[in-house]
Amino acid sequence: MKSRSDLLRILKSDEGIARISALYGNRSGVAARQLERYMLLVKKHEDLFGNEAVPRIISAPGRTELCGNHTDHNNGLVMAAAVDLDTVAAVSPRDDFKVNLHSEGFAPVSLDLEEIGPIAGEQGTPASLIRGIARRMREKGIQIRGFDACATSDVRTGSGLSSSAAFEVLIVTVFDALYGEDNINPMERAVISQYAENEYFGKPCGLMDQMACSVGGLVAIDFKDEPKVTPLQMDLSGYSLIVVNTGGSHDDLTAEYASIRQEMNAVAACFGEKTLRGVRPEQLWHELPMIREKAGDRAALRAMHYYAENERVKRLVKAVQAGDTQEFRRILIESGRSSWMYLQNVYAHNDTQPLCIALGIAEHLLSECGAWRVHGGGFAGTTLNLVPHDQEERFLRHMRRAFGEDACSVLSVRSNGAVAVF
Question: What is the fold of 239-411?
């Protein structure tokens, strides 16, 4: 691709439409909408940075978690899927180490990668993630420099679809596409992203979000040692995956999320282990009085969730492999109830409980035909619902009446993870 006109020509060609359709599916109007989105990004890049640099277009999907709620950080099992909502950037390389990022709806980000150590006061910002990723890329021998980028995302903040992981994996893929010849495999990209979020951004996340965004498709992941990813296929053509945004904010909830990992680790420490994966389930039950005394009741309940959730993921893999949709939805409901009862991440400690209301509405509407559960980290934000197509209109009507016209996102599973599209 030698010029901007070449890029625009490829975007509008049959080849370009085929690449776009491979990412977003063939539903009516989708390819045209995404083509317009890409064209606007290229135009914005030209307006911001001039027409000399021809941008690459990078896409990283959001993710939905089906089972394995808060098990990854204790080396557990999860099932997740990339979705057809994504973060996209038009990005061009620089000869120096400056980064200029303009993201729709956010303040511009500028930083200099001459310094790749943590910067005081930068924690919790997009700049901290870019800097942390840059450090890991250089440690891997990739001679990265800066870049100019404009980005847009339909993975909304607070949607439960992991906008942060999509952003992190996008930045790794940007550096790899510009300076690394696309040589970093998806699992390595996920690990780099987690490092930046843990060590620079300051959030003690597990690896599931980044792995799902990076790898793509429907996957089961075992985090016991090195993450083992099992790609899966299942026909869910009779159902829609619908995420309901209940309006709760994730702001100021880092301590709530961190407490789950801390308490699970505290139970593991009762047995001299770092994570619960090193403790046999029967040890939990045999030593329950000691665990309650040393780690507390909530920690014990969260450990109960952890072990049961690992078994549910195993059962869910078998259901997917057998194409057993009814067992699939039963396990999703079990997993959601365990998160509510034992993990206790359906509501934060305040007077409002919108997630509980959304789950109650879903159970009323879908008890005989679908599935519902808290989505992602929990405490606020979203629910995930498996809705038969013949119930979709009714379901959307009730949820929109409760939470607003823009509350619902109807999703499909995306087979590709993070990728340089053009």
Answer: Alpha-Beta Plaits (3.30.70)
Spatial contact of 136 and 196, defined as CB atoms under 8 Å apart:
yes
* H or E element, residue 254: helix 254-269
Would you state the structure tokens that stand for residue 407, as one six-digit string?
A: 């509350």
Residue 161 pLDDT > 80:
no
CB 57 within 8 Å of CB 88? yes
User: Rounded to the nearest 10 degrees, how much is the dihedral formed by the CA atoms of 354, 307, 275, 258?
Assistant: 0
Collect all residues with Cβ–Cβ distance below 8 Å to 313 and sequence separation of at least 6: 67, 68, 71, 76, 77, 78, 79, 220
Per-residue pLDDT of 28-63, as tens digits, reads 788 999 999 999 999 999 999 987 888 999 999 999
Q: DSSP class of residue 87?
A: E
Is the CATH number 3.30.230.10 carried by domain 4-233+414-420? Answer: yes
Tokens found for residue 30: 């989708």
Cα angle, residue 164 at apex, residues 224 and 338 outer, rounded to 5°: 50
Backbone angles phi, psi at 87, to 5 degrees: -105, 130
Q: Where are the domains of the chain?
A: 4-233+414-420, 239-411
**Residue for token digits 């994730």?**
250
Digit-coded pLDDT (tens) for 213-272: 999 999 999 999 888 989 898 888 889 999 999 986 656 677 888 899 999 999 999 999
E-strand ranges in 209-287 read 218-222, 228-232, 239-245
The type of residue at 1 is M
- The answer to whether domain 4-233+414-420 and domain 239-411 are alike in fold is no
Segments in 197-253 forming alpha helices (H): 208-215
Q: What is the mean pLDDT of the chain?
A: 92
Note if the pTM is more than 0.85.
no
CA-CA distance, 290 to 284, in Å (whole number)? 9
- If DSSP codes are grouped into helix, strand and coil, which group holds residue 237? coil
Parallel, antiparallel or unpaired: strands 371-374 and 408-411:
unpaired
Cα 102–chain centre separation? 21
Q: Pull the structure tokens for residue 361.
A: 């509405």
The Cα–Cα gap between 357 and 352 comes to 10
Identify the residue whose tokens are 């980064």.
Answer: 99
Task: Indicate the pairing of strand 98-103 with strand 147-153.
Answer: parallel
In 3-state terms the chain splits into helix, strand, coil percentages (rounded to 5) of: 50, 20, 30
In this predicted model, what pLDDT tens digit does every residue of 164-174 receive, in sequence order?
999 999 999 99
| Cβ-contact 383, 405 below 8 angstroms | no
